[in-house]
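tool_call: predict_structure(chain=1)
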Amino acid sequence: MLRELKIWKNLRWIDAVDLNKDEILRILEPYDFHELDIEASLEWNQKARIDVYDNYSFLVFHFPKYNTIRKIYELNEYNIFLWRDFLITFRDFHWNHIDSIFDYYKDQKNLTELVEDDEEIKVTTWYILYEIIQTMLEKMFRVARINNKEIKTLELKVFESDDYNLVRDIMMKKRNIILIKNMFKPQVSLFKQLEFVINKMYEWEMEVYFEDLEDKLDQILSDMNMLQEYIDSVEDAFKTMLDIKTNSIIKLLTIFSAFMLPLTLITSFYWMNIDLPFQKESYFVYLLLIMWCLIMVLAYFYLKKKGRF
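tool_result:
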């Protein structure tokens, strides 16, 4: 999908979603962009970066996109070409939040109100970029809250259920948290470089905006670190519960084996071709069973008293 918007005077915003290489090249052809930046916009999974030139800047951001079918977060690359009079954005997936920003600037009434209120700085490509990033970071706070709630639910299941499918749920949640953390961590330096470029261009008028973005990014990374520690503790608790249950099963099997082994030994002796005491007495079998049951019960209580069981 391709949308183009003339925002104010000569300022234009081209927003492209999931285009093929030929369509991307057709959009970029009228501009004098560096061939390496064009190549980067055509290739998937670039590193987070910012390249600053005299006539434009090229940025690569990464934001997570949740796959509802696979129940995992996927890398969503966001490539941006911008300068004072143009903003060109390429993304792999639709984002309702960005569509809302596009629709807001599409309404000329909103732009007129901003200009009349002396907020012309909000009708610039760099402020639109701020709104896009700010919206996606705010979304990540909601993602962190949702993950925290889901981990608490997993924690309850660990202590209330012995469902081995919990392993998959725990590992999936752990994988998502690590992916988000590794996705945002490299962008810390990018945000610092971006703030410097913006401040230099607008003479520090937008400093507070992009400092706010840095603070939010730091908070997101802090939340992800806490969630990773949380899910690690849930995983450790689940493994401990499994070990305890496994040990209980082994104990039961050990008791059963210990009970049957002497009887098997005695039976094998009495079936040999030699004469043994009480060999022909039928009651002796039942007597042996009763005696051995008493011995096992006494052994159980003895071990229980000593704390060995």
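agent: The CA atoms of residues 240 and 246 lie 10 Å apart. Proceeding to next step.
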